Amino acid sequence: MATEHPLPTELEREIFETAALMHPPDSPSLLRVARRVHFWIEPFLYRVIRLDRLPVSEAVRQAMRAKPASFFRDSVRHLFLNPALWSADEVHALLRLCPRLESLYTLGEFSTPALLPALQGLPHLRRWGGPLDGLFGTHAAIDLAQPFFRRITHLDLFDAAHNGDVRLAAGLAALPALTHLCLNNTVGAGFVRQVLADCARLRVLVHLWNPFLSGSAREIAANPPVPDARFVVGVFVNYWDDWEVGAHGGTDFWAAADAFVAQKRVGAIEASCYWLDHFS
């Protein structure tokens, strides 16, 4: 009979954890391999959380009741909130358990001034998406000098930005880490020009549109507000699926826009092209 040579535990764990990271949909099946594998892999199921799905929401609620605080602290890195399934109190309780978040998207009723203290307590957060008007209560109250924004590299804004919005443009230009900015739907051409002119560190400015406004998006791409290679226009489809792909390390619209701009700079894409076909 051949003698078995089991793998060292450390190597075995690395193999299973790598498999869970590279193939997230297969992670649940790995839980059934062995008790030790279940212990290693379960945290990876919570690394990326989308609370727009009822089964996921219920699993997270159950884990909040059953798991120690350290489980969420060590597991959760990316979170998308959905106001349809969670109350504000539940959300704030979850955020207190996840101090190591790297990306957080807060839409609808969750983006209120009550969220600001929680954001200040997330020192590892680098990507945030949501409406600034909601976060600060009113457009006039927006204050990008808040310490939280100084760490953000990728900012996805769901606010109308008008040509005369000098204060918001100046606030964006003052952010020391900001390299990627996304503006959604109605945005003044003058505002885009000012942001691109003032934000020297900005690598990409993506102007995303709702599919119902694809005609307006095509028109902007054909007649951009400024001939700047960093400017990219697109129409989003399955926005949150795309977010989840990016959270797992795949090619989301940010990565696609980076590649698009890089190809323009080397002449692989015409300088006059501003349309990003990523979602199609």
Present the secondary structure layout.
Layout: H1 9-22, H2 27-30, H3 35-45, E1 48-50, H4 54-66, H5 69-75, E2 78-81, H6 88-97, E3 103-106, H7 116-120, E4 127-130, H8 132-136, E5 154-157, H9 166-173, E6 180-184, H10 189-198, E7 204-209, H11 214-222, E8 231-235, H12 239-247, H13 253-265
Parallel strand pairs: 1-2, 2-3, 3-4, 4-5, 5-6, 6-7, 7-8
Helix pairs in contact: 1-3, 9-10
What's the gist of this structure?
InterPro entries: LRR_dom_sf (IPR032675). With 280 residues, the protein is α/β, with parallel strands linked by helices.
Average pLDDT across residues?
86
Tell me the distance between the termini.
Answer: 56 Å
**CATH secondary-structure class of the largest domain:** Alpha Beta
Give start-end ranges of low-pLDDT stretches: 30-34
Number of strands: 8
Strand numbers in spatial order across the main sheet: 1-2-3-4-5-6-7-8
> What level of helicity do the residues show?
40-55%
Counting helices, strands and paired strands, the structural category is: alpha/beta
CATH topology of the largest domain: Leucine-rich repeat, LRR (right-handed beta-alpha superhelix)
Strand content is 5-15%
Write down the domain tally. Answer: 2
| Tally of helical runs | 13
The H/E string reads HHHEHHEHEHEHEHEHEHEHH
User: Which radius of gyration do the C-alpha atoms yield?
Assistant: 21 Å
Largest pleated sheet: 8 strands, parallel
CATH-scheme architecture of the largest domain: Alpha-Beta Horseshoe
Coarse shape: globular
InterPro entries: LRR_dom_sf (IPR032675)
